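Q&A log
Question type: sequence-to-structure
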Amino acid sequence: MKITLLCALGMSTSLLVERMKKAADRRGIDVKIEAHSVDDIDKQLKSSDVILLGPQIRYKKKELFKKAEEENVPIAIIDMRVYGSTDGEEVLEQALHLKK
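Response status: OK
Response body:
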């Protein structure tokens, strides 16, 4: 399973990605987790099983959700509180729940 986090520049989510990877390892879950710029959404929709958006780009929700729906890829916005605390366990759980 590939989980992609999209944010403004693709850098601010790097710590969250690392914490999500550690949470997945602890739980024995085989996932690939990456962070990319929101500008890469078209490319990422072709290879991702789930896409999560950083709260700083929620203003693009309508456009991004439409693209994801057309490609049949689950998408959601990460809660601002969870994002700010870089809670990898909770964001991983959000991604897994979306895929179900």
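Response note: The helical segments are 14-27, 41-47, 61-70, 80-84, 88-99.
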